[in-house]
Design brief:
Radius of gyration: 38 Å
Strand order of the largest sheet: 1-2-3-4-6-5
Shape: elongated
Number of strands: 12
Largest sheet: 6 strands, antiparallel
Distance between the termini: 149 Å
Strand content: 5-15%
Length: 710
Amino acid sequence: MAEQAEDQKQDASNDAGQKPEMDKPGGGAPVDETADAKANLEEEISTGGKNLEIGNFRVFTDLRLPEFDMGHCKAYAADNLRRSEGNAFALVTDPVLPTRYDLIKFLSGVHMAGQIDLLDSAIAHWPIFGRKTMVLFFEKPKGGHVIVSSGKQRSINEQDIAASVVEPLMNVLQALGEKGLTHRAVRATNLFFGDPEGGKVILGDCASGPPGYDQPLVYETTARMAADPAGRGVGTLSDDLYALGMTLAELAIGRRPLANMTDQEIMDIKLSKGSFQAIASQEKLPLIMIEPVRGLLCDDPEERWGFAELHAWLDGRRTKPVQGNTEKRAARSQNISGKDYYTVRALAQGVAKNWVNALTPLRDGTVEIWLRRGLGDNDRAKAMADAMRQLQWAGADKRSAEEVLVARSILILDPSGPVRYKGFSAMVDGFGNMLSYDVQHGSGPQRFSDVIVRDIPAFWFGRQEGYSPEVQRLQSAYKNLRYYIQQKSAGYGYERCLYSMVRNQHCLSPMIEQEYVVDIAQLLPALEKAAENVSDDAWPVDRHIAAFIATRLEDDVEGQLMAMQNPSDEVEYSRAIISMLAVVQWRHGPDNLQNLSHWVARLMEPAVKVFHSKARRERVETEIPKLAKRGNLVELYNLINDEQERRKDQSEFVEAVAEYSEAESEVFDLESSGPARLEMAEKVGQQAAAFASTMIALLTVSALFLMHIF
């Protein structure tokens, strides 16, 4: 094992110049050295300082395998503890980039001809990062990289490219396409030889980061290349076929096409000449590869080669000729900030790059006239005029309306391209990953929120032609995003958008972010750990955790989220939080959460106030510590939410209120009628005294009369 590993300090990037090395999370972002040293020390104690067990694998943290690095991820030597034969390696992902859940789930444990075998995946603490991250385990290819670390290409005879490259890659793309998935990492630097003889190639990892993130810009279609790497989107099978065409071009000429150009120069030449002509004008393609490269690099997705054309080429049959591969050029240019543009897509990119200066030619109608006269494109010219009229109706918020005008103008010019708004540039199917990248790399969610609030994606949907199930699905999802952004309470906002759009996004709550919680079942164990060092007044559910539960839990928690809208109502707020956590434990466990239960118990005082009876409150307060010791949140919640007890308490309270009211009424009557009662008593006393004196007088007279007679 050791002799196969190279020094850890060796430069391992196979895509040098494309992405920063991932020595730390975020491609080299600084981390706390003290915390890192502490994590390393803990790791040395538990693993001997050289290896650690992750699931069914033993990973050697000091044995780098740079020849198996893929994109932004680094490879390490690993042993499969369940298999005595076969070589495995671990690919450590960047914890601040979401992985692709759908592909990990589909590819794990499945052997697919043409694709590297993904044996398993696991979330584990990685000493270098000082935190948890996703680790992917692959079967080691027997033949090594096609493009070695020096940038040189190992020889593939151009006559053998069809059988060695095209056939296995087609098999992968077809298998993924049948499941509605895309690879989005088809490139020459991601190819390995599947056998020592180099007879067949296999594709490398495609699940360790956002789709298209590691692709060199030249590999992206003219529609997607203007998007930021994190926002390039899932794309379609057609995007993978385009990347296959560029892969064939790189293998055929022995180096990356247009490698001597900057990204901006690559975009300019592809937009002005078309993808194939841009390559053909700068590079010398072998005659045998011209036909498939031309077909696969067609910029019109409707004309681009598919599997039928590739099969025909493999069989030596003639295929349909590719139609004109360039956009219509205007007779005269449209100038933006001193640069001339002749096509609508190139002008869209020029407007996006010169956001402020582009406003004047848009507002004064210069671009509309250029569309109508220079290109004869009346449809776009009319759409531009309509956008201008909406600016005139903007009212007081003129600046915001002008920014929306620029964003809409870009979509009028390039409806199949990304949504661009000031510094934001992402395909609609890449919004989630773009938001994740911004939030975790310091930009924050404001750019995304501005795009959603200003309803710019809705305009993108309106510019799409024809019916597409994928566009319909995206449109339905977008409607939810607007609702979430408009709601300001916990469980909504950009946090809800993030977890709704990115299935493998780990929870970004500061309390548990280091634990890399991707699945709902991991949430409570992470909070249990966080409860060991938490302040007494902190709540175990913040905005991120509330949104994470709302999107990952199969139960409806909208009622609890509504109760959390008013934090000043401590009774309902605390009950809602306890309820959500109890439901999660009921569904996913674990059964014993003593730390978290004691944490929750300390915060249950407001919820206990729901009981009116002092005796009942005292009984509940006595029971709380006992139940907390058992670590069961469900029992704690049931204690304060026992409907029978609450009804009984309410009934007794109503009776007590009634009795109290009656007694208070009697007291009031007694107190308010005092003088009248005294007068009546005096009158009755006088009457009684008169009656008594009369009776005494009668008795006296009677006695004297009887004495006189006798």
